[in-house]
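Customer escalation, tier 2.

The customer says the design service returned an amino acid string that "doesn't look like it belongs to this structure." They asked us to rerun it and document both sides in this ticket. The original structure tokens are below, unchanged.
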């Protein structure tokens, strides 16, 4: 059974920082595309940051320079360091894993339950 468990969410003032962590079990993240998604009320889910099958991190334009994704294959964990947080970053954040297809990371089969991030201005 695959489990992805997020932690580290919370409430913070604008300009503050949070670090999200995702602990994976039932799969080896080194063999998967790993990503952080978020969904705010009334908005579509969007992929915030992901690590490609080649190990390259990619960020959503709106979080570039502020968010850093990293994974520790020995611990089977995925982290998201979020700095200079803005009210627009308020959302439920989800960890996701999927098999790469022809080297691309577009489909995610496994999802965590989510962790809430609230940024007050």
């Amino acid at each position: 059974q695959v489990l992805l468990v997020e932690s580290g969410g919370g409430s913070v003032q604008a300009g503050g920082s949070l670090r999200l962590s995702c602990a994976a079990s039932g799969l080896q993240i080194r063999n998967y595309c790993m990503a952080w998604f978020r969904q705010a009320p009334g908005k579509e889910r969007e992929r915030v940051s992901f690590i490609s099958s080649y190990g390259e991190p990619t960020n959503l334009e709106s979080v570039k320079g502020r968010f850093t994704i990293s994974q520790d294959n020995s611990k089977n964990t995925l982290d998201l360091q979020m700095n200079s947080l803005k009210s627009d970053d308020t959302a439920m954040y989800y960890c996701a894993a999927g098999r790469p297809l022809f080297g691309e990371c577009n489909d995610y089969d496994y999802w965590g339950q989510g962790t809430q991030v609230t940024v007050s201005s």
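Tier 2 assessment: The sequence is consistent with the input. The chain is about 0% helix and 50% strand. The longest strand covers residues 18-25. Sent an explanation to the customer and offered a walkthrough call.
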